[in-house]
From TrEMBL:
This is Isochorismatase domain-containing protein 1. It holds the Pfam family Isochorismatase. CDD domains: YcaC_related. PANTHER family: HYDROLASE, ISOCHORISMATASE DOMAIN-CONTAINING PROTEIN 1. Belongs to the isochorismatase family.
Amino acid sequence: LKMAAAEPGAAPGGGGGGSVPVLFCFSVFARPSSVPHGAGYELLIQKFLSLYGDQIDMHRKFVVQLFAEEWSQYIDLPKGFLVNERCKVRLVPLQIQITTLGNLTPSSTVFFCCDMQERFRPAIKYFGDIISVGQRLLQGARLLGIPVIVTEQYPKGLGSTVQEIDLTGAKLVLPKTKFSMVLPEVEAALAEIPGVRSVVLFGVETHVCIQQTALELIGRGLEVHIVADATSSRSMMDRMFALERLARTGIIVTTSEAILLQLVADKEHPKFKEIQNLIKASAPESGLLSKV
């Protein structure tokens, strides 16, 4: 539970004057309780957690506010505030949208290749194009030393990853039945990569496995980049609405060229020429990106 900058200094709780009634408000709820006379900020937080702990998102930022009679509205809890008389306080989640910058560096990035399997070839729109782009991304990952995690959805029935995609050096290649790639083995692998912050995600299907993977990853605090020219579905409508939904959640929808050039960042990068050659060998532009 992260508190905003408006929180007061750590005022000692406790004191010898019995208890003081306090109304604790959170969301649409208001619950009367009491705290010891002279209780400070820390004791108020503990009380909020005891009353509403099962409803508070511990990863959000909050501010504690006090109802001020003189203003007839809530104000940020004053610095050093101590409870000396009956009062009303509330815990407010901050609604400020923090812009996701989307910076990528090889040392903090991992690539996720999702279910690029043989049985999907005839069903997925522009499958040949996303295979070509996916292979280019994996070549780039090898050049830049970026770990790659690959999954295959029920390979017994749907076949292995297509032969055109070279999985040499992949950190993990896993079968799965769950739609999301976030399996226990994947979480363990991520924990082994020091400083991982960003996931570059591509494969099929956009509205199923890609979408569910992306949502689980951002729920774990990771930044997700979906490669639009390496991601598709059977239906372009499903693909379009999935990308729109994901973009609204703060996931970055981007392209393979943007990803690769962002990772090298400088013409003087020792791998720039090799990355440039990968980009020059791009597949002809299809109708895929017009459906974003």
